[in-house]
Model the fold of this input.
Amino acid sequence: MKLDELRSRAEAIISNPGLTYQQRKHNLALLAEQLVEYPTLGDEARKALDERVICDLFEGNAPYRARYILPDYGKALREGSKFLELEPPTNLAEALNFLTILYSQVPSITGFPVYLGDIDTLLEPFTAGVLDAELYQQLKLFWRAVDRMLPDAFTHANLGPKDTRVGRMIFQIERELKQVVPNLTLKYDPTLTSDELLIEAIQTVFAVGKPHFANHPMMVEDLGEEYAVVSCYNSLKIGGGSHTLTRLNLRRTVEKDTGDGRTSFLEKTLPHYVELTLQIMEARIRYLVEKVKFYEHDFLAQEGLINLNRFSAMFGIFGLAETVNILMEREGSSGKYGFDEQANQLAYQITDKIAEILHQRELPYCEGNGGKAFFHSQSGIDLDLDTTAGTRIPYGEEPELFEHIMAVAPHHRKFNSGVSDIFHFEETVTKNPQSMIDVIKGAFKMGMRDFTFNLADSEFVRVTGYLVRRSDVEQYQKEQRSRYDSTVLGANALANQGIMNRQRRVISRESDQRTR
Amino acid sequence: MNQTRGLVNRILKFSAVDGPGNRFVVFLQGCNFQCINCHNPHTIGKCNLCGICVKECPVGALKIETTTSTSEQTMHYYEDRCTHCDRCIKVCPESSNPQARWMSVKEALKILYPVEPFLSGVTVSGGEATSQPDFVRELFRAIKADPKLSRLTTFIDSNGSAPIEIWETLIDVTDGAMIDLKALNSETHKALTGNENESVIKTIKYLEKKKKLYEVRLLIIPDYNDSKEQIQETAKFLNTINPNLRIKINAFRKHGTKENLTKNLKEATKEQVEQIKNLLENYNFKVY
Done:
């Protein structure tokens, strides 16, 4: 970038009335990062990136911190932190204070922590002898602080799978405070999670569009007991995380293929671009680990709250729907993904093929997944005008709910670092929460890993994996400013898709981008 | 048993409004009532193969065909050609629906099987469920006999007019029934449905005796069955049936009704429905 351009872009950020001080500072940092040379890439990888067949989500030329970090908050609470000059807390107030302080020091791609901890598991030991009213008040203040100090909807707390006093209170607090932050996931295990807790979660969905529901047994199988769901719906190891997330645009990939059907795509073109994506990931990982030495100098690593050997990197895909439909057409069929069994089978073939390659290809510093990349179904950004998120069925064109679940469920098993579908419900379901319990249990039986719900006419709108409030978006449109970083993204997504006017849910756009 | 057939208008795999939990709903074709306020009147009639819809279909999705072996004439609906314009439904002089088809219990189970993990149970509605009692009985019997399906509850949504002898053939395989009480007042009932309501009252009493009355539904139609006196009489009556009865209050809407029948009817407002719910507050009903 030339100096002139740098200056004018910096000036534009500084004088933008639509940005809060924190947002301006963050944007200046993003701008500065673009001055640095991109990690060294081979010519083909560079070309694929420039042609946007591969997309690095504008993560930055110089990755100087891991994209997603999941500190082991439990360890910190037990041992304290030397760097933060904090002794291990001995009561509830100290524990909440400790966490609030620690959150302010956790980096991520958004600038705010993407993981707040398994809140109920972390806090239950400090609640002995604390009366309900006192516990509620303390948790409420804590929850409010999180929303005001970490104004980003990708900040994510987990609850479950067991039913706890703290867990139930958090759901109550969510319904009372109606905050966008934090994002929330209930870990669900049919043998551990009570129907009572599930009903609490469902009532909370009716009120605020949270939580996500995660398949706890499936997650434990892939990641071990110490895992969490963070940011949108990314599942990673506690005490670890992901160095980076690079995604492959399957549609652009199939457009590069000159064959007349699936064979050359599956045998040649797809593996070729998967490999190029992995090369880009490798370059970024090496930069972060070897050049920046993030895992040597960050205090979280020094104190063992994160450990390099619990990290890996995420390989994301999107645009599967369009890719399948294009291939079907090339083969002379009119079958569409989500509606046609042949098309669905082709979709599973594609995700199988990629998973197979990822299982074999070694990636450095990815001990968190046995030396291999994680597989991720990426939820899209606002530049994605001609592709559908991840492995989802195009917005507004989904079949009935049963057929929808059956079409997408077979993908879920393969995406160890996250995949999620959003299901639409009518208002009438609020009078029959049992019907939602039935659907949730059925969806898990069918092998879904993660999903959530959007209610028509709700104040809360689920945009890919994060939330915005309609009123925040309206305010942003009027004042051109929002306290939440994520409102801008949500507003763009809503404007581009007219989500507000739609009957169905949708949301398949996500943008981590602030300066381009 | 599994070859018993029913004339099915359509099947809805997921429903949150047809009984407890998520339910698989079989809507039967044909009803013995002629409610002027019916919001799916095309489920009332039985096809007489007059052929008007065949001519009117813009995409040729309908054809009357003769089965060579039996010389039987039947309506064939080519679903893949259908654009769902609903012209056939609009022009049918019998208030029927050419998309309805004969389905055996076996075929219905085949559709139900993969959906089972998502369900609390199965509901038969319509049309009028009790107008095809053999099909309903055999369907429910088959569900209860199947190891995978037997956990599903079996419910009937009905206008309550079937004689008790019919209910007795269904009661052992039915877990619950939801009855529409169109009006307690017999003149009002006749004006709305074309039928008496003594059988409906008998059904409600019978089902409660058998502990299978899941809920009673009241459709509020302004100036017909919404007067304070009627509501109070209805509440008093239902209180004698079950003081903790589930009562579902629906507001009459014109959407889907036959225009010539409902042009002089008024839609029930939110406030009117609230008022009625308030009148019922002095009781211990579960009103929703």
